[in-house]
Amino acid sequence: MEGLQRCFVLHSRPYSETSLILDVFSENHGRVSLMAKGARGKRSPLKGALQPFTPLLMKWSGRGEMHTLRHAEAMGLAIPLSGNALFSGFYLNEILSRVVEPETAYHQLFFDYVNALTDLAQHSNPEPALRRFELALLDSLGYGVDFLHCAGSGEPVDTSMTYIFREQQGFVASLMKSNNLTFTGSDLEALATRQFSTAEQLKAAKRFTRLALKPYLGSKPLKSRELFMLRTRKLTQ
């Protein structure tokens, strides 16, 4: 069918007795809001299909901020996420909904998202996939930072040295003791290559992406993070 787009549902909420409002991430149009009329009806062929992590082909029409869904079909089974991977997937969906501009194409980020979901489904530790996607998201937002050169001298980073992160400038060689803004040269090389071989590098990557994403996310707490923390507390009780 002409006009079909590869998409994933990021979030949905009920509207009226039988309809849904969908927040969708599409390959060619980025984030789109859709009205799925009758999708909750008992006889609707869409019932059960419009779920997160299910690859879909979709078509819509209309102008303005809200479009009308005209066609949707699953391209395959939902990417199987459970446990920590499921909550991590919800986190990816939430930051996409919060950060990316609507009706703006993010072609590479769409495939970064697919790769992240696939990695979450295949590996027990979700942290590397999350960090790689966050870095890809920052790239797509135009957040440019040079991990491989000292912003002060222009010299290549030294794995034995410490660097402090300065917003709007980058990483500058520093003699300061370790704190939330300091990173080793080894940490920076891992961030540049998106390959994290140690737990310390993963922790450093998490510190950096939280610092970098904070201006985009604002002060409103992430619901997915709160749900994950609640689940963790229940499991440890």
Task: Describe what this molecule looks like in 3D.
- The strands form 2 sheets. Strands 1-2-3-5-4 form a 5-stranded mixed beta barrel. Strands 7-6-8 form a 3-stranded antiparallel sheet.
- Helices cover 37% and strands 23% of the residues.
- It has helices spanning 84-99, 107-122, 127-140, 185-193, 199-217, 223-236, and strands at 5-15, 19-26, 30-36, 56-61, 66-74, 162-166, 170-174, 182-184.
- Among the domains are: 5-74, Nucleic acid-binding proteins (OB fold (Dihydrolipoamide Acetyltransferase, E2P)); 83-142 and 215-236, Recombination protein O, C-terminal domain (de novo design (two linked rop proteins)).
- It has 6 helices and 8 strands, in the order E-E-E-E-E-H-H-H-E-E-E-H-H-H.
Helix tally equals 6
What percentage of the residues does DSSP assign to strands (E)? Answer: 15-25%
| Average pLDDT rating | 92
Using the 3D structure, state the CATH architecture of the domain at 83-142 and 215-236.
Up-down Bundle
CATH superfamily of the domain at 83-142 and 215-236: Recombination protein O, C-terminal domain
Strand order of the largest sheet: 1-2-3-5-4
Helix content: 25-40%
Rounded to the nearest angstrom, the distance between the terminal CA atoms is 52 Å
Can you tell me the CATH class of the domain at 83-142 and 215-236?
Mainly Alpha
Give the oligomeric state of the chains in this entry, treating copies of one chain as homo and distinct chains as hetero: single chain
Instruction: Characterize the largest beta sheet: strand count, sense, and whether it forms a barrel.
Output: 5 strands, mixed, barrel
